[in-house]
Amino acid sequence: MHPNAQFRTENRALMEALVAEIGFGMIFATTPDGPRVAHTPLLWTGDGALQFHLARGNALARHLDGMTALAVVNGPEAYVSPRWYESTVEVPTWNYVTVEIEGRVRRMDDDGLQGMLEALSAHNETRIASGTPWTMDKVPPARLSQLKGAIVGFELEAQAWRPTFKLSQNKSADERERVALGLEQEGSRAIAQLMRDVVG
Question: Which domain of life is it from (predicted)?
Answer without folding.
Answer: Bacteria
